[in-house]
Amino acid sequence: xxxxxxxxxxxxxxxxxxxxxxxxxxKIYNRTKSKVEHLGYEIVDSPKELIEQCDTVxxxxxxSSAVENIFKMKNGIxxxxxxxxxxxxxxxxxxxxxxxFHKKIDKKGGEYLESPVFGSVAPALQGLVTIVxxxxxxxxxxxxxxxxxxxxxxxYLKEAGQASKMKxxxxxxxxxxxxxxxxxxxxxxxxxxxxxxxLEILGxxxxxxxxxxxxxxxxxxxxxxxxxxxxxxxxxLHTLQDLAYSKNQPLYTATVPxxxxxxxxxxxxxxxxxxSIYQLxxx
Length: 283
Description:
Shape: globular
Strand order of the largest sheet: 3-2-1-4-5-6
Order of helices and strands: EHEEHEHEHEEHEHEHHHHHH
Radius of gyration: 19 Å
């Protein structure tokens, strides 16, 4: 049976392509059909129709409000009979809102696996992303073979909401590293150190990280086509601050990177890759 897929943005397209490369047949729903017709998948008219035709549906959306819309819209997922159906939600959700998704799908007789993805387009195409999942253990076990087709590292945190919290914590590292690497790059150039050589040295020195490996060419070429956008990291760091506030836990290193990415959004560069923060320091 075909697998359903909702959310064909940059990351969603890469994961869908990976599933196709691994031999899976996909059917898709997208709010604007014209944006995905070139991908060659069978397109259905509504989320309800998709989940009626597929026992498993992936969702990879920008934020929780988009997921809620897919659930509650006219002919949304919650309008369908969900007995025997599983939703694997790859979205980076709000840590509180995602609890409602677990309950809503469970109430309708379906299975919901909260499964945010760590990684962007390039690793997703190769099946090298990390996935952290929360939900019923039996749901996780039944979905694990499918998750292993798109992810290299799979972690299970049983309690609902824990995977979403872990994703936000991870993105504190992601945003902070990217801001620091961008500032290092701009400073090195100001010192007349050739950029490619500078990044090579950082890559075996204090800057050694998955972030630098993923973004070296983007920094060298100043190609800021989005793999992971400024809008996305800004949203995630804002939600992270909500999480810290709820735990009465001060956050120090999250504050400045969040506002730097906010400046990129304000400057009309929200849709650019988050490595484009380099421009703030270079200017």
